[in-house]
Design goal:
Elements lengths: L5 E2 H13 L4 H7 L13 E2 L1 H15 L15 H9 L5 H13 L6 E7 L2 E7 L9 H18 L5 E6 L18 E3 L5 E5 L11 H7 L5 H5 L7 H9 L9 H7 L4 H10 L4 H17 L6 H7 L5 H12 L3 H8 L1
Parallel strand pairs: 5-6
Antiparallel strand pairs: 1-2, 3-4, 4-7, 5-7
Helix pairs in contact: 1-3, 4-5, 13-14
Amino acid sequence: MRERTIASHFVRAALRGAERRGLDCAPLLRIAGIQPALLEEPRARIAPEQFARLVQVLWEALDDEYMGFGLQRSKRGTFAMMCHAIIHCRSLEKALLRGTLFYGLFPDAPRIQLERDGDFAVLTVDDSPLWDPDHFLVESLLVIWHRLGSWLIGQRIRLEEARFHYAEPAHSAEYELLFPNPRVFGATRTCLRFHARYLAMPLLQDERTLKQFLLHSPADLLARPDGGDSLISQIRRLLGRDCRLWPDLEAVAHQLHTSPQTLRRHLREEGTSFQELKDHLRRDLAIYHLGRDELSIQDLAEQLGFSEPSAFHRAFKKWTGLTPGAYRAQEA
């Protein structure tokens, strides 16, 4: 899943808080290994490690883990101190509740709340104290708390539903990377819903593993796409990384124990198709390899299953707005 790329929308959204604080963002982008010109192309995408580095750079430049979106700063080290406060709790429920109490000590902070609803647990983030026009911070907080909880108990918490109090955005197709579960927009609140059985699970981490975890978190929690167990993620895993060996739709349907007709219907319901999935995987693999100098563009075109480099050039420009050569030059 490491080849899953991130839309340039999220980079522009992440910078909004810094711009509001009056920072020149061009040097910050370069430190993160992102050429500012890349953001002028709406279809451009970046690698997860570039995005993680950008988040870290923004925290350092602003001394603010809320990246300029809060009424007050959340000084660097706040998240780490919260983790130290919860690491000795006996269960996930106690850890999450203590974490919400910790952040509740800060005035004007987004309120995070954990509650039970029958057999389910609901984690809610109230973003009313935020200046967050793209909903970037509130979505980041949902992702971070979900993945922190999963890390604490040593297994991925399967989300039943993600709800958002705002209208469905134009880039909603990207949410499958963050919330690979049913999503509802225009809800009464912004929250994650998961089975309450996870709350009783003991924490499998300790101060030793926490020290290693905090070397890169929560930036990498935010940047790492969630493979999950969605249909799209399952198909991507079955396709693999060598496009020349990809199975056809019938073979994939057989491996998923369903019929080709049913698979096509499920993909249609998710707003995609088998061909679009293959195109997106090719695109992400191309971006992954273009950020490295291991393969020439000609060799990469061949590995991606294109009959000739010119076909790869046309497809890549259609996907990202840039030619492979121009994209590699931006990365250099």
